[in-house]
Amino acid sequence: MSWSLHRLKVLIGVAIAATLLALVLFASPASNANKTTGLDASSGSESQSSGFSSTNGGANVQAEDRIIAEAKRILAARGQRLTIESESESEPEPEAEPETDSNNDNNKKKPDAAKPAEPEPEPEKKPEPKPEPDPNAPPRRLTLVERPPLPGPDVVFPQKFRFDVPKIASIGTTPGARFRVQGTGKFSADLPQAIAATAAANSDKPIFDNTVFFYMAGHIRTLFHTGQGLQDFFASAKVPYLVFQHTWSETDHKELTWWHGAEDAAKPPAPYSVTNPGPTETFLLDLQLPFVKNLVTMVEDDDVVTKSGRMKVGRTILEGTNPRILASYFYTLRQVHALALEYVKTKTGHEMASDAIIFRLRPDLTIFPTDMEGVRTVLQRDPNTFFGTCHGQWDNWRKYLLSDLFFATTRQVLDKLAAVNIIQWLEDNAHDAEMQKVPERSFRLLLEEIGVKLMWIDSGIILWRGPQNSLVLPCPAVP
């Protein structure tokens, strides 16, 4: 049975303690002898201490060596070997844990919070296969915003239009004209009186922010038949709107046209005035539709306008044509534009914006549903755009003509159209029968000359010349 290292260390320690005790007891008489011989304590204390330490240390070493030697001898007799570990070979002591402040909550070990369970990944969705296009399906119609403008003219027309700045001091004080604003109970002799009557009647105040302006020009003709449809058209704007109207005291003209013979002409009408309203004013005073509250009207007498020289009429250049038709059209367009500009300036104190959106129409029209939002979007992006209507799908219309019955544009374009001298244009083209007979050709050339971006408006119209006399114009924007 071999000795364990631990037991050997204990045995060596006991032996060393016993040896030290014996040495102490052995040295005690010498100390007492020193005291009896009278040695100076101060001189001999250092040497005695040194002698005792040296003797004691030597004895300890000798005793330890003897014990180790004896232990080796005993183990050797048993066929074993003594191995003594040095301090460097001893087992390392465990490191002391750092002291912590028991009052510091941050040093307290907190239990691990329960971790939320990770959500299971959703299964990857596979994209649905796109259906194969039907080769027989018709192509998708582009929206108004997506469509490109119409191509420009193939050739430059040799004659140029002339533009005159209208010399109108105040449209609201035009001699002989009558005015009515927002459905008041009577017509007034000038625009300021009509506006004052509106204020006295506590009518609703018009809104001009984001307002769309509708210009309704021409004889009212069949407005009793088209009124409700026009009401629906105005309301479809879905934004505040105002309707400006220039019309004539007679509900229809008696001029010679391709559809209206000279035999229909009647005696000249009696003079109309504020106290003697014409058929148009009587009808409008009785009209009960919501848009009347947004309506600003100017009525003039045809014979008065002609005699006064306000509307200039050229000579008959080509037999069978009537120079008054184009003259009247551009006159009433100029008057309704001037009426709108003056009313806005009077009510707001500032000019109508150059990019204000304007729809031009006639009272005798039924207008099919129109993408007004698309029209407004395009015009807001480029105010120099003009949306026109096409009366047919044949190439002649698409390339060379453009209808003046219904269109949409902005104030900056209307300023130019209202300034054209159409009488001079007809004179300059007296040799060209097409210019005399086809006003839609002249209108297309005019728009091309002033440099607007032309586009088709995606809406059809019905022209009502009488309750039983209508002309459907699909006005297709796309062939």
Automatic annotation (TrEMBL):
Residues 37-60, 80-153 are annotated as: Disordered. Residues 106-133 have a biased composition (Basic and acidic residues). Residues 86-102 have a biased composition (Acidic residues). Residues 38-58 have a biased composition (Low complexity). This is Uncharacterized protein. It comes from Capsaspora owczarzaki (strain ATCC 30864). The lineage of its organism: Eukaryota, Filasterea, Capsaspora.
